[in-house]
Structure formats: structure tokens, C-alpha cells
């Protein structure tokens, strides 16, 4: 029997799993997809918000303020890219300057440090490419950017390093409440567990309704984005928000931790929790809206576009509590923005809550918070490059020409705990196929390496989900 | 630090021809660096025929064409390194590379020739809406998988883009047992060669779907269908004209882009139209002693022209090393005029021409019964009648050196004039 | 008399040919707009007995790659292409192999061979 079963291996589920691994517990982490970080975590703005935006007194405000300062340490421990680059909320009129004043005040109430209102010239000095229509900005130096799926993958790996059982392709079908425990039925198996933590993202309401009467609803709110080539990476060095208006929050322009530019998102409530399709109409809107921020947005350098779903709660605030109808079932639901920023603080809070509830948790003295470092070949100096190729010649073979990623890095990403098993899994961990050719050259090589390392046939390598086969067979085999 | 007279980056048709020609012009210290496991470049996956009619006066397949050069390269003893990736080239011609055997290589060279070729435009670059399932391939990647790895990419296939790779792949897929629904072109003509429309599509009754494009991809795990929309005369989608085609695969053949990341880092100026380096008559870039040739300069449709151009680069690089290349500051500048998209080379130092100048260019649209008019400082020096011109077929004009010799710091233009 | 329009596929120039029936000429046709004599030959053949070169791959054991490219060393009847493919698909060769090596002699009895279009060395053992 498991002590705790976490349903959903997104940023919240993986954070909680790793936090729980500090105790000597049997922990299961269930994920319905073929990889961790495959839902909202892989398609969002990747921002660690400073924390002025959430209404004071809400859980969003509380956990954002607590979460933001925790990132330096956890990203250091897990070797995940994180940069505190600061954010600017741009005002385009005097009216909007008033809104900035309100945000500033809210930020003070939320105890966000170092906020400042800048005039036009001060903004220009920080970001020279900014549109001529900008009249001022709210500057929040503590805002940052992170690799969100890299973080969740690193958390999952570190959790598994510390004996958490990760079970992919386990979709929860039914949950039976027993006297002091639960039986979780997945498409693969039955799992008995004392506690259940519901981190199922857009499906959190469905999960909750398996053990209790409906008390909240999660509405998938889709957002669409563009990614620009690295060659445009210097058009902004900060996260650029537009001042919120009655019409909406506007779109963002920001650099990613890998020096691409991310532009988006729009916001659209939809019905289908699987619908991450992009639409021409909405992408056009994003394109137009971003032109307000920068005088010239180089859309001829777009390398890809994507859509993600936010898990919008009907209650408007995060839902982080034990179900009052079902003891031992804990909801961590409706974690929309600033969910990523709040995640470490939420995890700590949830684990402490569980510990206090149970009363018998013991610290795991063997817990190791450090994840083995990822070798980014191109980030090494010449001596280090020589050294590593001598040790493992596969670091001397570049597979991805766009980002100069070596076979050594790809093999390592496959052979780690919670490692890559799919084409997209390799891509998200070490980035071949993330560059401007989007896998055109390296695709066949990555498939070959995956097949070799996993001991599978190349025909059985999938892009992402189990059913997303790449090859339909071998040539010459129909005879 | 290793030292060579000439380092050539890329062992495809451009790099091979440049290396051989440099050697023939008296340079012995040459190194070809290739990132793949063998020489030959993309030719090794182009197993169809149609190569070599100009150079060898016979019709060869891609691998046969490559092998002729590889054999010659080995016979005359030119050094090469496979599976080796150049990470950086400095403007003083220090090449940094890595491979599994040597580790980190630092090479000082007197001249460098860029011959890295091009890459395919992707779905992201053309922004097709919809989901992101498996089964969306760049045509070149599919070609490699099928022809070299023996991996089949689909059973029922739609092809977006009617360039030569798209047409060739339509036939390849059909011969390997797939059903090709059609080949889509945004224009009212195919982007590839007419002969390929005939022998790749018409022979197999594959529809060429003109003035249509894909507006959406459907399918959660694997492609399930695509939405095809008609385009009006301005290439804008006509709403209400959408048709859904069931298929498991979408091949994209939507253009090639010269691969110039190394060039940019070396401080080489890039032409916005070709997306390749600005070069002179000797295929030398703005950085002294760094040359470029083949698809890294501009995307060619015939490998034979790549070979010719690269031979020129190889010979010039040899001349540069020997101090024989005239580095006169005054030159004729070429400028595309009406109806012309680009001209290569961009600058001409007449002293370095042998007998004649070869100009390569692409027109902007389809022209029937027109002529190409070459002017030097607004004076017509050559006219060429053309029955048929399209942007997908590169035009070549040869101009006798004597027509240029008296001119310095002049402007040479080419324009399309419709015949009455 | 009937006019037939066709695109010559002999080389990449792609001449847009016009063909007229003509009892007086030796071939029975007059071909216009061909830039070279091969175009005339092509046009007549295309009307009487169209033929094509087939290029494909065969399986190869122990080679650097999994497939070896091949072609017919002359043209075969257009309506026999798929028959030819069936033969090609059933073959497996062993590395090493030299370019030009005959893989199937006189395929389909049309006097044309299937030959290797590249050399392939043995796979290197890692």
C-alpha cells in the first residue's frame, strides 16, 4: 500500500512528489500521458511572477509571494535554467499609468520587493526596442523566467532518485473510498493508498467528482503563442506585459531561458479539455496585439506556434484543501497563473498540511535534493569540452545542428530516472528539434538513438503519446 | 593547432567540387569537414535520376553523381573528416570543430570555403493552425527516412508544396505503396520542374491541386485529416471553400533556406533575397579569404550549377592562397531590376574574370515570351529571349568579359521585358 | 489532323512539345518546339510505347545504411513499373557492394538490368 498517491505529473504534482520524498513514505506519482509535464506545464508563459498582480488576500497572492523567492535554490539544486530578468508592465496612456499605480499599491500589500514606476525614458533605457507609444511602466526586478517543463522533469527525476514510483500511461478511471484508504483504478492497475493528492490540472474536477459531490469546476482556458528564432533573442531582455484594461490582459513578449522569444497568449474559454489546437484567427490576434509592445516584431522569424490550456477554477482562486466530503483526499486544483510561480510554496504547504494531519511522517535522512547536473556541451569551455569527449566520445558527435546538441547529451536524457522515452521527450529535455529546423535534420538520428538506448525497434518510437507513431513500418516489408 | 591552406566546410556537392578544383589549381593542403557519416550530402538521399546532364552529359541519380566526385577526391588524395561538426569560424579563419576521435579541433586556415547547404522551411515558419500530432514531416526528412533508413512514413499522404522535392516524394511514396491524395500549390502552377509534374504526378494520376493550401491539421496523436482551402487570386483563403481530406501523413515541401549561422558569426554579410552571403565573381564573401558556394549562397534547382559555381569558388580560393586573386577595390555591382528577385554574384571585379561572367538569377513571377535585358550603367549590353520563365527555374546569363572590361564602379542590372 | 501537347521529360529544361500525326514522316509524327533531337525521339516514343527509368532501393545486409539505392539501367515500359517494383522489393543484397553492380539481370525480359547506384561499405562496428 502506498502512503500517498499523487495524480498528475505536471509542475504541481512533481513539486509535491519531490517535497514528500523528504519523508520515509511510499509515494506513487500517476500520470495519464506518456511523459511528465505534458499538460499545462509544457505550454505556458514560463514566468515566475513577482507577485503584484494577484488580489491581496487570495491564495494566489499568498503563494506567489512565497513561491517566487524559492526558485533560486530549487533551480540550483535541480540544475534547471532560471533567470531573474525582471518584468515591465507597459502603460500606453495616462489612464493606464493610474492602473500601474494601483498595481504598485497591490504589490506593496502583497509585500513584493523593489517595485518601481518608471517614466518613458527610464523604460527606454532598459528596453530600447519598446514601442513609441509607451508612456511608462511598472518595473518588478524579482520577476523571472524558467524552463517550466525542464523544471517538472527535473523534479520528477529527483523524486524518482529519492524512491518515488512514477507510473506513466496510468489514467485514473475510478477511485473507491474505503475506510481509511482509497483504491485507485487506472487503465493499467489498481493502487491502494492512504492519501490521494489531486493535481490533475484541467481534469481536477473530474477526479474530485469520483469521490465527492461536485463543488467546483475547472474550465480549460486556451492560450496561443508564437516562438521566434534565437537570432531575435535580443529584442527584449525583460518580460514585457501590457497594462491590463477592461478588454483583457494584453499579450506578453519575453525571452525564454534558451534565448528564443515567446509571444502570447490570448485567452479563450473552451469546452474540450484536450483541445490544444492553434487557430489562425487567434494567432493573428496575438500577432496584432504584440505590435503594441514593440515597434517591430520580426514575425518572419517564427519557428513554431503552440497552444496551452490553463486550468481556470470556477471559484476564481486556487483550491488547496482536503475535500470536506472525503477525508484524506486533497485537492490542489485550479492552479492557473500564477501557478508556476506559486508551485514550490504550494508544495511545501500541502506537504506540511499532510504531515500535520497524519502525525507519523518521519524525515528521510537519505533524501538527496541534488539532481546530477545536465551537461550542456556548448556551455562548456574548451578544456571541459576536450575532457568530456575523451571520457565519452559521444559528446563529440553533434546530432542537432541548430542548437549543437551532442549524442552524449541525448543519451544521458534517455538514461536518467524519469528519462526521455519519446521523440518529444528528448526534445523537451535537451532540445534537439527545438531549433529553427524543428527536427528536420536530426529527427532520424534522434529516432535511431532512442531505439538503440531503449532497446526498441525504430518503428516503435513515438513522437509523444503512445499512439503517436512516427513510422508506419519499414519499406520493402509488404512483400 | 592544425594548419591548412584551405578548409572546406561541408562535403556535399558544393564542398566536393570546390575541394577538387582547389587541388587541381595547385593547393595540396586541403581539409574537407563533413558533419554526416559520409560524404555526398543531400545527394545521398536523392535516389531519383536527373542529375549530371550538364556536367557529365548523362543522367545520373544523386548517389551516382556524388560518388563520381567522392571517388575523384579520394584518388587525388584530399583529406577529409567525417562526423565532424564545425562550431565556429572566426573572421581571421580559425575553424573550431569537434568529433568523436579528435575531440576539439582548432584549425588555422589561409582560406575557408563555406559549403553548408540549406535546410527546409518548417510548419512553424508557415504557421499552419491545428493540432500537433505525429505524421507531419518535412519532405527532406521523409526522403532520408525512406531512402536511407528504410523507414516508411505514411499510408495516406497529402503533400503541401509543389517544389521538386514534393513532386519527387509523391512518386517515391506511391512506388513504396502509399496513397498520395494530392500535391498542393498556392500558385496556379507547380513550383517544381514541369518534367517532374509529368513523370512524378501525371504518370501516377496524382492530382496537382492548384491555388489551394492547408488551413488546419487535425488529429490528437497522429494526423487524422487536413483541411484544404482554396485561394483567391491574391492567395487569400476563400472562406467556405474548405474541404477535409482524411490522411495519416502530411509532407511539407515549402521551401529551402540557406544555412548561414556559421557565416553570420564570422561577420559575413547576408543578402536578404537569397538569404545567403553576398559574394563577388570569385564567390568570395565580404570577409577576405572566406568563400561560399552552392546552396549556402542561394538555393539552386540543378546540382550541375552547384558544381560549376563551386569549382569557381575552389579555383578562386586557390588563387587567393597563391596571392593571384586580384583584390582591386573597384567593382561592378549587380542589381536586380524589374521582375528579377536576385542576382548572384553581387559584385564583379572584372580583372578576376577569365573569358566571361556567369550571372545566376530568379525571376519574380511566371513570364511567357519575354526577354531578359542586361544593362551596364543603363546601357543595354545583352538581351536574351525566353519562351518561358518561372521563379522555380533559375536563369543563367553568360556575359563576355570584353563587354565589361572598360567599366569600373558601375552598376549592372537585369530586368524582364515582355516582348510585344 | 490532331495536335498533342506534351512536356519533354528527357532533361530538366522541360520543352513544351507539340506533336502532329504525319503519315509522310518516317516516325509517323512531326514534333515541334524540341530544343534538341532527343525531344523528338521522346515524343514519338511517348505516344507509341511510353517508357521510364525506375529508381528505388533494395534491402541490404550489414551495410552502412539499411537500404541500397538502385535503378533500371535503361527504360522499361511505363505500364510495368509496379511489376518492376515488386521484383525490387523482394531483393536483399549483402554489403559491401560497388556502384553499377548488377542486382537483377534483364528484369521483366526487357533487356534492362537493375543496378546499384552507389557503393556501400560494411557497417562500422561501434
Using the alpha-carbon principal axes, give the shape of chain C.
Answer: elongated
By secondary-structure content and strand pairing, the structural class of chain C works out as alpha+beta
Approximate strand percentage of chain C = 35-45%
The number of helical segments of chain C is 2
Total strands of chain C: the figure is 10
So, the CATH homologous superfamily of the largest domain in chain B?
FAD/NAD(P)-binding domain
Mean pLDDT of chain C: 91
> Multimeric state of these chains?
heterotrimer
Q: Architecture of the largest domain in chain B, CATH level 2?
A: 3-Layer(bba) Sandwich
Stretches of chain C where pLDDT is under 50 for at least 5 consecutive residues are none
Tally of discrete structural domains of chain C: 2
Q: How many distinct beta strands of chain B? A: 29
CATH class of the largest domain in chain B: Alpha Beta
Distance between the termini of chain C: 68 Å
CATH topology of the largest domain in chain B: FAD/NAD(P)-binding domain
Summed up:
The complex is a heterotrimer of chains A (479), B (420) and C (126). Chain A is α+β, with helices and mostly antiparallel strands.
Architecture overview:
With about 475 residues, chain A is α+β, with helices and mostly antiparallel strands. In chain A, about 30% of the residues lie in helices and about 20% in strands. Chain A has three domains: about 1-40 and about 150-215 and about 315-360, FAD/NAD(P)-binding domain (3-Layer(bba) Sandwich); about 85-140 and about 220-310, D-Amino Acid Oxidase, Chain A, domain 2 (2-Layer Sandwich), CATH 3.30.9; about 375-460, Arc Repressor Mutant, subunit A. In chain A, a hairpin with a 5-residue loop joins strand 15 and strand 16 (about 260-265). Chain A is globular, with a radius of gyration of 23 Å. With about 425 residues, chain B is an alpha/beta fold. Chain B has helices at about 15-25, 60-75, 125, 140-150, 165-175, 195-200, 260-265, 305-320; strands spanning about 1-10, 30-35, 50, 60, 80, 85-90, 95-100, 105-115, 120, 130, 135-140, 150, 155-160, 180-185, 210, 210-220, 225-230, 245, 250, 255-260, 290, 330-335, 340-345, 345-350, 355-365, 365-375, 380-390, 395-400, 410-420. The relative contact order of chain B is 0.13. Chain C has two domains: about 5-50, no CATH class; about 55-115, Roll (CPE0013-like fold). In chain C, the strands form three sheets. Chain C has a five-stranded mixed sheet. Chain C has a three-stranded antiparallel sheet with strand order 1-2-3, covered by helices on one side. A two-stranded antiparallel sheet of chain C has the order 4-7. In chain C, strand 2 (about 15-20) and strand 3 (about 30) form a beta hairpin. The longest helix of chain C is centred in the middle third of the chain and has 12 residues, at about 35-50. The model of chain C has no long low-confidence stretch (mean pLDDT about 90). The chains are: A alpha+beta (about 475), B alpha/beta (about 425), C alpha+beta (about 130). The interface of B and C includes residues 50, 53 and 66 of B.
Amino acid at each position: 500500500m502506498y502512503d500517498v498517491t499523487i495524480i498528475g505529473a505536471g509542475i504541481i504534482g512533481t513539486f509535491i512528489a519531490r517535497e514528500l520524498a523528504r519523508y520515509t513514505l511510499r509515494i506513487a506519482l500517476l500520470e495519464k500521458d506518456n511523459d511528465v509535464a505534458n499538460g499545462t506545464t509544457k505550454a505556458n508563459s514560463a514566468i515566475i511572477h513577482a507577485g503584484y498582480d494577484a488580489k491581496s488576500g487570495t491564495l494566489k497572492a499568498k503563494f506567489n509571494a512565497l513561491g517566487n523567492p524559492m526558485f533560486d535554490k530549487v533551480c540550483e539544486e535541480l540544475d534547471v535554467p532560471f533567470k531573474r530578468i525582471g518584468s515591465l508592465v507597459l502603460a500606453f496612456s495616462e489612464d493606464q499609468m493610474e492602473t500601474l499605480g494601483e498595481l504598485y499599491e497591490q504589490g506593496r500589500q502583497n509585500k513584493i520587493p523593489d517595485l518601481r514606476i518608471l517614466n518613458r525614458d527610464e523604460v527606454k533605457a532598459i528596453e530600447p526596442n519598446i514601442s513609441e507609444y509607451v508612456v511608462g511602466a511598472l518595473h518588478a526586478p524579482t520577476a523571472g523566467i524558467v524552463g517550466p517543463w525542464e523544471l517538472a522533469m527535473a523534479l520528477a527525476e529527483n523524486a524518482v532518485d529519492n524512491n518515488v514510483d512514477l507510473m506513466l500511461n496510468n489514467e485514473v478511471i475510478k477511485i473507491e473510498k474505503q475506510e481509511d484508504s482509497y483504491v485507485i483504478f487506472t487503465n493499467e492497475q489498481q493502487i491502494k493508498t492512504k492519501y490521494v493528492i489531486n493535481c490533475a490540472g484541467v481534469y481536477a474536477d473530474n477526479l474530485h467528482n469520483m469521490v465527492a459531490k461536485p463543488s467546483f469546476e475547472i474550465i480549460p482556458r486556451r492560450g496561443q503563442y508564437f516562438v521566434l528564432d534565437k537570432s531575435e533573442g535580443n529584442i527584449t531582455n525583460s518580460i514585457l506585459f501590457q497594462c491590463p484594461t477592461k478588454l483583457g490582459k494584453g499579450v506578453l513578449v519575453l525571452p525564454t531561458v534558451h534565448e528564443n522569444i515567446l509571444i502570447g497568449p490570448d485567452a479563450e474559454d473552451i469546452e474540450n479539455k484536450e483541445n490544444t489546437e492553434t487557430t489562425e484567427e487567434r494567432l493573428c490576434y496575438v500577432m496584432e496585439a504584440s505590435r503594441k509592445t514593440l515597434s517591430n516584431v520580426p514575425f518572419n522569424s517564427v519557428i513554431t506556434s503552440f497552444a496551452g490550456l490553463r486550468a481556470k477554477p470556477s471559484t476564481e482562486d486556487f483550491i488547496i484543501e482536503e475535500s470536506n466530503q472525503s477525508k484524506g483526499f486533497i485537492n490542489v486544483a485550479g492552479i492557473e497563473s500564477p501557478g508556476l510561480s506559486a508551485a514550490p510554496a504550494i508544495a511545501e504547504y500541502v506537504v506540511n498540511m499532510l504531515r500535520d494531519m497524519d502525525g507519523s511522517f518521519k524525515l528521510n535522512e537519505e533524501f538527496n535534493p541534488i539532481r546530477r547536473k545536465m551537461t550542456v556541451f556548448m556551455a562548456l569551455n574548451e578544456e571541459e569540452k576536450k575532457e568530456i569527449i575523451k571520457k565519452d566520445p559521444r559528446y563529440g558527435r553533434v546530432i542537432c545542428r541548430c542548437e549543437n546538441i551532442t549524442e552524449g547529451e541525448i543519451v544521458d536524457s534517455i538514461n536518467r530516472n524519469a528519462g526521455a522515452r519519446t521523440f518529444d521527450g528528448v526534445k523537451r529535455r535537451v532540445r534537439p528539434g527545438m531549433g529553427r529546423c524543428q527536427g528536420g535534420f536530426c529527427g532520424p538520428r534522434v529516432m535511431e538513438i532512442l531505439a538503440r538506448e531503449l532497446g526498441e525497434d525504430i518503428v516503435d518510437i513515438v513522437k509523444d503519446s503512445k499512439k503517436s507513431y512516427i513510422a508506419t513500418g519499414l519499406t520493402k516489408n509488404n512483400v | 593547432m592544425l594548419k591548412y591552406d584551405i578548409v572546406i566546410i561541408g562535403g556535399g556537392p558544393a564542398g566536393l567540387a570546390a575541394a577538387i578544383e582547389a587541388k587541381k589549381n595547385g593547393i595540396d593542403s586541403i581539409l574537407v569537414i563533413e558533419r554526416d557519416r559520409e560524404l555526398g550530402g543531400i545527394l545521398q538521399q536523392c535516389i531519383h535520376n536527373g542529375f549530371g546532364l550538364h556536367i557529365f552529359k548523362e543522367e545520373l541519380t544523386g548517389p551516382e553523381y556524388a560518388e563520381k566526385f567522392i571517388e575523384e577526391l579520394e584518388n587525388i588524395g584530399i583529406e577529409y573528416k567525417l562526423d565532424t561538426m564545425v562550431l565556429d569560424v572566426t573572421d581571421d579563419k580559425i575553424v573550431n570543430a569537434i568529433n568523436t576521435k579528435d575531440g576539439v579541433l582548432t584549425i588555422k586556415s589561409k582560406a575557408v570555403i563555406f559549403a553548408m547547404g540549406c535546410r527546409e522551411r518548417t510548419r512553424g515558419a508557415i504557421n499552419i493552425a491545428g493540432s500537433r500530432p505525429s505524421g507531419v514531416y518535412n519532405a527532406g526528412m521523409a526522403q532520408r527516412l525512406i531512402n536511407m533508413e528504410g523507414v516508411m512514413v505514411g499510408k495516406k499522404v497529402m503533400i503541401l508544396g509543389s517544389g521538386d522535392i514534393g513532386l519527387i516524394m509523391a512518386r517515391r511514396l506511391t512506388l513504396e505503396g502509399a496513397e498520395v491524395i494530392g500535391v498542393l500549390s498556392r500558385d496556379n502552377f507547380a513550383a517544381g520542374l514541369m518534367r517532374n509534374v509529368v513523370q512524378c504526378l501525371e504518370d501516377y494520376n496524382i492530382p496537382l491541386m492548384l491555388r489551394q493550401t492547408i488551413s488546419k491539421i487535425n488529429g490528437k496523436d497522429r494526423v487524422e485529416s487536413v483541411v484544404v482551402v482554396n485561394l483567391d487570386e491574391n492567395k487569400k483563403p476563400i472562406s467556405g471553400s474548405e474541404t477535409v481530406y482524411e490522411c495519416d501523413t502530411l509532407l511539407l515541401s515549402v521551401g529551402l533556406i540557406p544555412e548561414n549561422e556559421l557565416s553570420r558569426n564570422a561577420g559575413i554579410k547576408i543578402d536578404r533575397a537569397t538569404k545567403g552571403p553576398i559574394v563577388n565573381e570569385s564567390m568570395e564573401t565580404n570577409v577576405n579569404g572566406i568563400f561560399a558556394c552552392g546552396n549556402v549562397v542561394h538555393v539552386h534547382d540543378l546540382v550541375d550549377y552547384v558544381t560549376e559555381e563551386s569549382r569557381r569558388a575552389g579555383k578562386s580560393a586557390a588563387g587567393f592562397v597563391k596571392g593571384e586573386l586580384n583584390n582591386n577595390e573597384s567593382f561592378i555591382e549587380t542589381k536586380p531590376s524589374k521582375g528579377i528577385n536576385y542576382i548572384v554574384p553581387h559584385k564583379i571585379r572584372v580583372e578576376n574574370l577569365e573569358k566571361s561572367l556567369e550571372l545566376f538569377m530568379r525571376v519574380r513571377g511566371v513570364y511567357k515570351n519575354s526577354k531578359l535585358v542586361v544593362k551596364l550603367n543603363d546601357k543595354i549590353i545583352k538581351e536574351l529571349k525566353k519562351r518561358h520563365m518561372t521563379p522555380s527555374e533559375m536563369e543563367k546569363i553568360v556575359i563576355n568579359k570584353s563587354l565589361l572590361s572598360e567599366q569600373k564602379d558601375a552598376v549592372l542590372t537585369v530586368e524582364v521585358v515582355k516582348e510585344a | 489532323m490532331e495536335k498533342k501537347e506534351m512536356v519533354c521529360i528527357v532533361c530538366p529544361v522541360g520543352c513544351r512539345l507539340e506533336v502532329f500525326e504525319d503519315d509522310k514522316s518516317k516516325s509517323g509524327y512531326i514534333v515541334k518546339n524540341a530544343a534538341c533531337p532527343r525531344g523528338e525521339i521522346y515524343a514519338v516514343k511517348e505516344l507509341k510505347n511510353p517508357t521510364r527509368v525506375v529508381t528505388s532501393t533494395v534491402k541490404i545486409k550489414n551495410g552502412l545504411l539499411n537500404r541500397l539505392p538502385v535503378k533500371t539501367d535503361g527504360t522499361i515500359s511505363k505500364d510495368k513499373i509496379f511489376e518492376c517494383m515488386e521484383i525490387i522489393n523482394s531483393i536483399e543484397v549483402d554489403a559491401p557492394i560497388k556502384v553499377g553492380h548488377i542486382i537483377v539481370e534483364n528484369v521483366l525480359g526487357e533487356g534492362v538490368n537493375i543496378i546499384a547506384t552507389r557503393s556501400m561499405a560494411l557497417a562500422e562496428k561501434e
